[in-house]
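User: I'm putting together notes for a lab meeting next week and I want to include a structural view of one of the chains we've been expressing. I don't have a solved structure, so I'd like a prediction I can at least talk through. The sequence is below, exactly as it appears in our construct file.
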Amino acid sequence: MFKGMKRIALALALTLCAPASWAAEKLSLNEISRYLNGITTATTSFTQINDDGSLSTGKLYIHRPGRMRFEYDGKAGGTVIAGAGAVVIKDPKSNQPPETYPLKRTPLSIILARQVNLGRANMVVGHGFDGTSTVVRAQDPENPEHGSIELMFTSNPVELRKWVLHDSSGSQTTVVLGPLETGQKLPSRLFSTSP
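Assistant: Thanks for the context. Below is the predicted structure for the 195-residue chain, given as structure tokens.
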């Protein structure tokens, strides 16, 4: 009886000391680049935490390369569309025409690029692991003044769960993603930037 208990205790101790195969590990920049390059289309729900602490929710559509659409909930929700090299912000609560910015001047251009290569010199300015997720902070190495994007990934399987946009004025916007549904056909009208 005592021998059997000792064997069980020893087995349990070895199990607890051995590195768990299911435990999350820090993802390499190559793994993350490969994952992002493997996404052609994706949809998910999102929660956005604005710089002033206010919350917005909605649906996100991604069509790589170069296209993304945020559809905010509510009658006066508005949209933010990246397409044709531009980002267009349509706010129905405003009496102003839509605001337009070049996509390459926003950190979103990093994940919407035709070929994501986080190993490029001076692109990644932070690469860490918080115990559950890999966090990468990236910027356009040629235009760091355009801000940066902090991306959070889980592993097993690799999935983008959150990003934080740090813009040139110092403000930040956090977008928390639901599970990504990938591979569906998305109509091109979703990404039209025309009025």
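A couple of points you could mention at the meeting. Residues 86 and 102 are 4 Å apart (CA to CA). The chain has one domain: 23-180.

User: Perfect, that's what I needed.
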